[in-house]
Amino acid sequence: MGQKKPLCLLVDDQKDILTLFSLSLASIGIESHLAQSLSEAYIFLERNNYDLCISDLSIRMGGEGREGLDLVEYIKKHFPFMPIIVMTAYGEIPTAVRALQLGAYDFVCKEVMPQQLCDLAQSALKRNLNYQKKLTRLIGESPVIEKLRDDIQRVAHTQAAVFISGESGVGKEVVAQLIHSASNRSEAPFVPLNCGAISGELIESELFGHKKGAFTGAYENKKGLFKEADKGTLFLDEIGDLSYSAQIKLLRAIQERAIRPVGSNKEETVDVRILSASHRNLKALIENNSFRKDLFFRINVIEVRVPPLRERIGDVRLLIDHFLKRLRVKNDQPKLDISEAAIKVLEQYDFPGNVRELENLLEAASVLCRDECIRPDDLRLSPPQERPTPAPNPRLEKNPKKIAPQKINITTNKWNNNSFLEQILTVYASSHLTLPDMMESIYCVLIKMAMEYYANGQRKSADFLELTENSLRYRSKACEEKKLLVGNNVTIANQLRVLFGPFFSPETPTIPIDKIVDELEKRMIKSAIRNHKDDLTKISQQLGISVNSLRYRIERKYKL
Ligand SMILES: Nc1ncnc2c1ncn2[C@@H]1O[C@H](COP(=O)(O)OP(=O)(O)OP(=O)(O)O)[C@@H](O)[C@H]1O
Questions:
Q1: Percent of the chain as helix, strand, coil, to the nearest 5
Q2: Do 427 and 494 sit in the same domain of this protein?
Q3: Mutation probe of ligand 1 site: the residue of 135, 174, 175, 319 with most atoms within 8 A of C-beta
Q4: Quick check: CB of 355 below 6 Å from ligand 1?
Q5: Which residues are registered as beta bridge partners of 197?
Q6: Which of 100, 132, 164 is the last residue in one of the domains?
Q7: Which of 323, 469, 525, 550 is 20 to 30 A from 100 via CA?
Q8: Residue 473 falls within a domain, yes or no?
Q9: pTM of the complete model
Q10: Which residues in this protein are found as 4-aspartylphosphate (predicted)?
Q11: pLDDT tens for residues 34-46?
């Protein structure tokens, strides 16, 4: 059927209990993620979409003093559709009752037979038919968002193909998920594909699947996204980026309601609803012959427009509230807050990168701010250029000049702007990383940021960082394998995010990552040479590289 298994978050500090229950749940087709502490549970919740949570209540887990009840409260607030079953020890009924009052689905005594727990899990899932809808929320109360909600409801009940238009970062994928969740296909999968992220040769196999041996590297049969989305919804994001030949194949699949996997001579029928989106103007693409008109009419039976954030500035406050809640958990900053003055600055900003930009700005500011309170300075915003700078309100901000610090423009001031590079170097001042690891960490963080910014669009991310797609792929794989810094040294990664964050905006054409890294490496070597007065052995020890490779850098690469 291609339907995804329900996913459960199991939380308990006893490993054997986790293993026992996860095996039992697996036997009835429920997959589990196991968290052995509450802090781990919060991280899992942030990263995955769960259909159910089963958590021990009876202990303080992780030593951070958070009680199991907090988890119940948190889930109910953030994922109101997710049922929670709590486990208690005998004698802890009052706590269990409190959990029910907070919205838990039911409780069981920890000594239950696994079968009882399975029955309960199944009934919780069954009663909660909304389990596909859980995470997707459209925050906002402005008239344009209310209209968007109406549009979503209206189009959800037809089978027509919907094209979701809107600028980058406005929430087009959120809208696509909501259309799916409100439709009669909501119990089948919602399968998103970022068309810009897949190279021309692979797109056919990605969409339609392939047979083993169909081409070099096709070691297994592959199902393809059309089949995975059978009975459900296929969301083709950035459809304007599809190559012309892929457009022809897609058109055929939509018209015939059938696909043919690469290397197969048999057609297979599929029942898929197509939603698509692009921040590009498809009509303009048709004019210059890079998008097919016939495909346009097929995918654009109904158009839903998602308004830019500047048309719903009244919602900025609600969105801030929403993102801060997430950051409190994600960064483990329970008191994280924002000053009224900073909110005002945001309410007067244009947001060329829309909701995603707001989210990124807050994330960067949450790292920079002192005493867990985001102030205007922490936002590092330039004043809007198109309109007059709003008069500072002395009541809100003691030092109005500080409201909008100048950001360093990577293109006009160039990446070799002294103070910008020095700021990066200070990030590493007290780290014990080797030179290659330091440089690698910059690649890891910037590639991650670019992939987030371009919604996993590999080609766009590579272009933005002035890398080839191959090099981007190779480097991201290395980052994943090593879990280098991005995973392990959160502070360094966060500081880099803060420094580079402002450049992830439409104003910056590219970030020449290779050049930046070379310049930084050169400066580090120079400073080590100064420190150790040309003693190559000491310099190589400080930098964590061999004398030979140091020599190569000094004599050949940088000619120092
Ligand atoms: N109204 C909203 N309420 C809550 N979160 C939102 C809203 N709109 C957008 N977001 C969040 O903003 C980010 C960007 O949204 P999304 O990926 O849906 O935008 P998009 O228009 O598809 O972007 P792109 O054009 O780059 O593909 C996501 O993290 C999403 O959860």
A1: 50, 10, 40
A2: yes
A3: 174
A4: yes
A5: none
A6: 132
A7: 323
A8: yes
A9: 0.55
A10: 56
A11: 998 888 888 888 7
